[in-house]
Amino acid sequence: MHHFHYKDDRLYAEDVDLTALAESVGAPVYIYSEATLRRHMQVFSKAFAGDDALVAYSVKANSNIAVLKLLADEGAGADVVSGGEIKRALRAGIAPEKIVFSGVGKTNEEIALALDVGIYQFNVESEPELDLIAGIAQEKGKTAPVAFRVNPDVAGGGHEKISTGRAEDKFGVPMAQARALYGAAQKIPNIRVTGVAVHIGSQIAELEPFESAFTKVAELIADLRTGGCAIERLDLGGGLGIPYGEGLTPPHPDAYAEMIRRVTAPLGVRLIFEPGRMIAGNAGVLVSRVLYVKAGAEKRFLVLDAAMNDLIRPALYDSWHDIWPVMRRDGAATVEYDVVGPVCETGDRFAKARQLPEMRPGDFVAFMSAGAYGAVQASQYNTRALVPEALVSGSRWAVIRKRPSFDEMVAAEEVPDWLD
Questions:
Q1: Cα–Cα distance, 192 to 187 (Å, whole number)
Q2: Any idea which residues carry the catalytic annotation?
Q3: What topology is assigned to 4-31+281-409 in CATH?
Q4: What's the rounded Cα separation, in Å, for the pair 389 and 31?
C-alpha cells in the first residue's frame, strides 16, 4: 500500500497535488511520501514484534538524510556499505550500536571509522578482510565484532545483476570454507565472533529461496556451536520484493516472519534484517514532464525531461515501472508509446510499447515505485543536474535535496595552470 492517489483526476501524494509541487520545484523531481515510509517500516517491524530483532534499514536503497531520520524515529538501525553511509546514518541520528557494515571491499579508512564510532557488527566477506579488520583493531586497541557473510549457493532476485547468493557471485564466503574460517577467527586477538550473515539477492517474490538459504545457515550455526563457536546473532539480510506492476505479488512480511520463526526458533539467536526496497520502493515517485510526442516510422515516442541518468533502473535492469499521468483527462484515447529520455543513448528508454493515455507536451507523468534505487543511482551524465528530492507529510512538503546549479556542478573541477 502507498499514499499516492487520484483526487478529481489529479495525482496526489498524501494531501499534496503533484502538479502544483512539480511546477513549483521544476521537473524532473523525486517525491516521497512520509506516511508510506513510516507505514512500511511499521508493517515490517510489527511482523517481528516479540522477537529479539534489529531492523537495520538498507541505506543504499535511499540514503537521503531526511528519509533516514524519519526511519530512525521509527526505530530503524542501518545496514551500510561505505564510510559515507556510516556518516549519513550517524548524521540522521541512528545510534552506532544499530549499524551493521556490509560490503566486499571495505577500505582501511572505512574500517577505522567503523571501529572508532563503535558499530554493532562487521559482516565479513573474505579472509583477507578479516585479517585487515584484526590488524586495524589491534592498532587501535579495540575489539571488532564480526559475522561472516556466507554464500549458500541459492539463487534469488528479480534480475541476474541483483542475485547475490550463488556460488559464482562475488559476495560472501563459500559455505564449505565457513567452518574453517570461524575456527581461525576465534583465535585472532581483537576479533569477537558474534554471528552469521546471509543475503541472497533483491526483489525476491517467493519464500522458497529464502527458506532454502536460511535452512542451510541454521544447520551451519548448529554445527559451529557443536565445535565450540558461540553464535549469538543471525543476519538474514534483505531482499523481500515489492509489487512493480509486473503481476508479482511478493509475500507479506507476516508470512516471511512465520517462515523465519519456523527455521530459526530452535537457535535462540538475535535476528538482524536489512530491508531496503520493501521500505522505500513504493514510497516514492519520479515526476517528469513530456517534452515532445515524436512520430517515428512505425512507433510513437514520448520524449520526457527525465533520462537514464535520473532513473537508471530500466536501462540497467530492464525493470518495469508503472507510469501514471499526473492529470487524467476524461475520454483520453489509449496510445502505444516508447517512453524515452533526452540522453544521447539508445538505451535511454524507460518503457517499450507501453499503453498510456494520450499525452501532450507539457503534461506530467509519474514513474511509480521509484523510491528505492532511483535518486541514489542518479548521475550528472550529459552535464544534467541531479534531480531534486521532496518529502511530503500530509498537506506539507519540503525539498530535501535541491537541484544543483551549473556552477555547483563544476565547482570541484580545476583547469591546470599549463592550460590556463
A1: 9
A2: 344
A3: Lyase, Ornithine Decarboxylase; Chain A, domain 1 (2.40.37)
A4: 6
